[in-house]
Specification:
Layout: H1 2-19, H2 26-60, H3 66-86, H4 91-126, H5 130-148, H6 156-192
Helix pairs in contact: 1-2, 1-6, 2-3, 4-5
């Protein structure tokens, strides 16, 4: 049975890969990609049911932190009910989602900035080289300019700082995306040629 799973994974992967270069296989490639999207949606739905089951069980057993599980489930069901009743394009629904997402994103970004600064200091202690110093200086620069930039007003210095603040994250994001793309390509080729079998084969 496991050899059948390996064969299906290799054939499907090769068809999708070759379909980008051979127009004749574009139809079959589209069908396989649509199947993958459907399976991903079903997997997400199964994940939601698993989330409800795990946290519901935690509430029933009155384990430590069950109040957070209750808040999570209440928020989940409220968002689902309001989303079905109002629709995703309703202004009130968008305001509700923004009122939750924006503060959470701001909090996570604040935690991320402090964590990066702390990590850069620890890195500098363990390994003092040029890249460690650049990492630390970049983190400090972003934190300081975020705090004092609103007091500068409109000036050439403000424009310069804004350009630097835009260039640094853009370069980092491009590097991360290139790394993700190369990692995804390598992992995909390993799955296609049967070196890795995340679908359960050994």
């Amino acid at each position: 049975m496991r050899y059948i799973a390996v064969a299906i994974a290799i054939i499907a992967g090769l068809i999708v890969l070759i379909g980008y270069f051979v127009p004749a296989l574009a139809g079959v490639q589209g069908i396989l990609l649509n199947w993958a999207i459907i399976l991903a949606g079903v997997a997400a739905l199964v994940g939601v049911f698993n989330l409800i089951s795990v946290h519901g069980d935690k509430i029933r057993r009155r384990e430590k932190g069950n109040i957070y599980s209750a808040i999570l489930l209440i928020s989940l069901f409220a968002s689902f009910i309001f989303g079905i009743a109002l629709g995703p394009d309703n202004p009130n629904m968008r305001l509700l989602v923004s009122a939750v997402i924006v503060p959470v994103e701001a909090t996570l970004m604040a935690l991320l900035s402090v964590t990066l600064l702390y990590a850069s200091v620890r890195l500098l202690r363990r390994r003092t080289d040029l890249m460690s110093v650049i990492f630390l200086l970049t983190a400090v620069f972003m934190l300081i300019t975020s705090a004092i930039l609103p007091f500068f007003g409109v000036s050439p210095l403000t424009d310069l700082i804004l350009k630097i603040r835009q260039a640094l994250p853009l370069g980092g994001a491009r590097g991360i995306l290139i790394g993700v793309a190369l990692g995804t390509l390598t992992t995909s080729l390993r799955v296609i040629f049967g070196a890795d079998r995340p679908y359960g084969g050994k």
